[in-house]
Amino acid sequence: MSIECIPPRKQTCTNHQLQRSSFVHTTIINTNDRGHGLRTDENIRAGQVIDEYVGKVMTKTRYISRSRLKTLEQPFYYLQLQPGYIIDGEFHGNNTRFINNSCSPN
User: Fold this and answer.
1) Residues 53 and 38 sit within 8 Å (Cβ to Cβ)
2) 3-state class (DSSP) for residue 42
């Protein structure tokens, strides 16, 4: 999770990646056997911000209720924002909902 200075203080805060939208260029790909994924042609440094994860923020209680309606075959795009709050990127998300881990990173 990345937290930035609000309001931006140019003299003292150097963390403005989200405000400037300085993200890695990404492309959504179809993996054929595991659904969609996200690829980049750039090298990503450890700790580098790739993009902002966006979606609908919900309570953990609402998340549990919604997740019970899904089958194992349906994709889900949940990310824990903080204890008790989840971001659901399914309907209001962006490319970041397709980020996943890989045994052979690109």
Assistant:
1) no
2) coil
Supply 13's token pair: 């805060």
CA distance 83 to 67: 17
Question: Is the whole model's pTM more than 0.70, yes or no?
Answer: no
Task: State residue 102's pLDDT score.
Answer: 63
CB 32 within 8 A of CB 19: no
The DSSP code for 32 is: S
Beta carbons of 74 and 88 less than 8 angstroms apart: no
The answer, yes or no, to whether residue 59 has pLDDT greater than 90, is: yes
pLDDT for the residue 71: 74
Between residues 10 and 34, which one has the greater pLDDT?
Answer: 34
Q: Residue 85: its pLDDT value, please?
A: 92
Q: How far is CA 43 from CA 46, 50, 69, 99, 103, in A?
A: 10, 11, 38, 15, 16
Beta strands in the chain (DSSP E): 27-30, 36-39, 56-59, 78-82, 85-88
